[in-house]
Each structure stands twice: as structure tokens, then as C-alpha cells.
Amino acid sequence: MIPDDLRYTAEHEWLAPAGDGTFRVGITHYAQDSLGDIVFVQLPEAGAAFEAGGALGEVESTKSVSEIYAPVAGEIVAVNPALEGSPELINSDPYGEGWLVALKPTDPAAVDALLDAKAYGALTAG
Fold first, then answer.
1. Digit-coded pLDDT (tens) for 21-71
2. Residue 93 DSSP label
3. How far is Cα 54 from Cα 98, in angstroms, rounded to an integer?
4. Is residue 123 very low, low, confident or very high in pLDDT (cuts 50, 70, 90)?
5. Domains defined along the chain, listed by start
């Protein structure tokens, strides 16, 4: 299931508006399913700035280690503290409790240029 109210990247990240000009970022159900059981997450600290497409962390699973990319340029304003002790939340609730970081975009309009649910669904249907 691909939530209709989010924006997506071709690298399987999602963005959800937080209502205060920031966006929560996570990886999609498709991505977590492909990775398998997630055992560790490395994320940046609040205040770190990233360019669109820049590596902002890693997700380590029993199968592999995968980079997480910044969907848009911006500053990290929060990191999900629950993941430090429970990285498996990404598997069990990728669009909810398994969020990774909150990001304040440099250019909020850049979010609109990302994939919508229909386009992301077409990408992953292959």
C-alpha cells in the first residue's frame, strides 16, 4: 500500500508534511521489504544540512547496508529517537513510527517536484 498523501523519490524515500514547514522523511514499505530485517540505523544530527540526493544516513539489515538520500535540500531539524533502540520500527511501521528524520527544505516548492503516489506505484510495479 502506497499512501496517497506523501511524496516519494526514485530511491524509495518518502516525505510527509508535518504542518510547520518541515517534513518527516522515511523509507517506503517497498524499500524496507526489499532490505529485510533492519538491525541498525545511522542518522545525522539535528542541524546538519544536505543537498538533494546527498547521503544522509544508512540503514543496515540482515541482508545489506543501504544509503538513505535527502529527497530535497534542507536542514535536519529532528531525528527519530525511537530508532536508536528499536530500528525494527522501520519494518513494522515504515510510514508511521518508523520515520527517520524531520527536514526543513531550503526550497519548499522542491517537494512538489517529487513523485506522487501514482508515479511511485508505477515505478515499483516493474
1. 999 999 999 999 999 999 999 999 999 999 999 999 999 999 999 999 999
2. -
3. 21
4. very high
5. 7-108 (2.40.50.100)
